[in-house]
Design brief:
It contains 15 helices and 23 strands. It has about 575 residues and is of the alpha+beta class. The N terminus is likely disordered.
Length: about 575
Amino acid sequence: MIRTVGLRRMLPAVAVASSIALIASGCSGDDKGEANTGGGSGGDSGRVLNVWAGSQTPIVANFNPFMPNALLHATQGPILEPLFYFNKVADAAPTPLLGESFEWNEDGTSMTIKVREGVKWNDGEPFTAKDVAFTYNYEIAKPSYLETAEATDDTTVTLTFNTPSFTNEDGLLQMLIVPEHIWKDVPDAAVATNENPVGTGPYTVESVSDAAYVLVANPNYWQEGKPAVKKVRYLALNSNQTSSDLLTTGQLDWAGMFSPDPSKVTGGGTLAMINTPVDPTVLYTCSNAELGCEGPQTDVAVRQAINLAIDRTTLNEKAWAGQAKTISPTYALLGRDDKWIAPGMEKESPQTADAAAAGAILEAAGYAKGSDGIYAKGGQKVELTLSSVDGWTDYNDAAKLISEQAAAAGIKITPMQVTWDEFAEGRSAGTYQLIMGGLIGTATADPYSLYRDWLTTEATTPVGTAIASGDWNFSRYSNPDVDAAVLAASGTLDEDAKKAAYTVVQENILRDMPYIPIVVNATQTFMNTKDYTGWPTEDNMYAFPPSWASVGAGIVLADLKPAN
């Protein structure tokens, strides 16, 4: 499954002036996809739906699903589709897309999938089970636990695994499917930008410029009558404030972004906002000295002390305007996943700071406070840099507050705003100390995939070696007990056995703190409900609603209709 943290947030611009000028110029839209302000009556079926692109500017045409740190949002859902969609904001059965049904064998070592008939790629070629088998077997995408994928006929695929794999279900079935007739001839899938993507989704690419890219309805789309919105423009913007300004002036119709006062954005009556917190916000720590991490944060005592020095109530109030939710250090989503939190485990991270307790941990580990009020050990002060991406206003504000709170506990943290490229490269290579960032919340009511993707040894690399596409253990955490427990959980449907495995995971990560939990991030989505209907609502949350949501964005776009 294609997953990315960076692509879900507002990224910085190196040429924002050109994009804003293009949007504000008022040029009329045409078949070349040039920007306009997007105004017009809701009944105009030719009206362009303007969407926040979430990309750095200038935009680079990259629709390669195997490059999650660089691809453009519309790749995942609007252009390429998976077999099934797992809605992370609803504890419900997966939605069939290119797949119609799937069935496990008794011990979880084989899955048989029936795929949809009558589907065409947007170049007119037929989609078959052979494309599915090709995607699963494709070297860059093939999961380590998959032995073979075989198309036994045009509508049936059989997957065989080298270990029981029940708990990998959502990752397997949400993998974006690519056309064999295109990708079999790509010499290096790790670097190909796939500028003219062939997919089965509701949209195709019409044009790409530095400031925007434009999608048009796929005439071969398999869902009859969809999409009703015929043209979608993704705009590259430099900050939450810029997006907010364009929303309030009618130049942006759909954005997943943070606003400290959403009522100011929605006050005109054109827009609605929905908040769906599901993804953990954390401090990434490059935690593992054995894999090459450097700095005070490699000491577990320092990570434990930082965890206790944080006042999460204040962070939520000041950085997230009270719209974030309480996080569990187990990373089970509170309310949805409570049954997976082990008995006796700390259910919630501490909501207020305890500087004295933080100091006691450091002193027990041999640190002493210097005349400057900063703890040190062996001549090394507990001084750290905390990176966040320029333009991520909520994260930048939180980083500043954390530095102030840590100082009260004798820990010096210097917040530093960086470009998206610097953020992504440092995170992947391990050349950082602390990062203000996010994890991807699980697509099902079970923390398994987060444990597997962010905490296991197979999902990381030594510092200096970029973490492979699709792997997410940026903390370089490596713990054989956690690895074994995650493997055990993957091979059973028995709840008691999974709970026993998760107990081991939780005991270790609560002690080791490779990621320091902060909040479950506010996830605000702003939608033009005056000119378009069919958006997800509190009463009908049929898909995760942000414009950047992988797969879900395609489902939402396919369901939208002009208001008339």
